[in-house]
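User: Could you check the structure of this?
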Amino acid sequence: TLAGYFSASDVVVNPSVMENSPLNVIEGLTYGTPAGAFDVGGVRELITDDCGAVVRDRSPAALGAALEDVLFERTCDRDALKRKAERHAPAAVLRQYRSIYDELVAS
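Assistant: Sure, the predicted structure tokens are below.
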């Protein structure tokens, strides 16, 4: 299952240079897997130092070095991973959209 793959992974990698809110990162965080990605779109909102690495230099070498750091040098905060996952889970995003919609309709 997808949950099994993410749970068995040591890190989720998103090497895209054109992303807004990468689903694979959100899914990885949901299953407690730290992530590494280039600094594009909303990636910085998803990945913080306590749950992965955001890489400004868009080179494979920089991404590889950051992933090594996440895998071998850092201890990821599992509570931070859980909070990120809860905040960006589809049900939570739906609630946020619904709240905005209700507010707009009421005004």
